What we know:
Arp2/3 complex 21 kDa subunit ARPC3, two-stranded antiparallel sheet, 2 strands, globular
Amino acid sequence: xxxxxxxxxxxxxxxxxxxxxxxxxxxxxxxxxxxxxxxxxxxxxxxxxxxxxxxxxxxxxxxxxxxxxxxxxxxxxxxxxxxxxxxxxxxxxxxxxxxxxxxxxxxxxxxxxxxxxxxxxxxxxxxxxxxxxxxxxxxxxxxxxxxxxxxxxxxxxxxxxxxxxxxxxxxxxxxxxxxxxxxxxxxxxxxxxxxxxxxxxxxxxxxxxxxxxx
Length: 214
């Protein structure tokens, strides 16, 4: 009985927090977006360079996905706009402790633009669908966001910057070395999303009649 009470209390707390996040004043939403932008900047410093490509391994993908889960579509997306904009303005929180517009026009700039797209995409489903907050739907959505919405613009700009047109070589530089690590980050983010998101409607979800016991 005690365990059941704790679980029920936890479910009430997570529902209240997401309901509050949805209805709170805009100043608090902007503050939360700034906080997640800072988290993305911190995650960018967890960096492993690779000798054959200018694209390093970082923890940014995890931060981007988590920002979308916690803040939803618009403010999750805004957090990544803040990250992109402040970094372009010179704040040294891009990977390697760098900042400036040259990073956005460099080999990794397309991935950073993709962060905004991925956060908007995942955040939309978090806010609009209760069913999407379960593990397998969220895992599938995050895979799409990562390998399509982040990697495609990343590869496009990487190709422009390096002049590489061979698709196999381009994939070896910008996607294939990162698949394993990205899947681990996506798995972790999907597990967290399942655990921390409410399985009741808080924002007029399209499937508001659905209620999960998870």
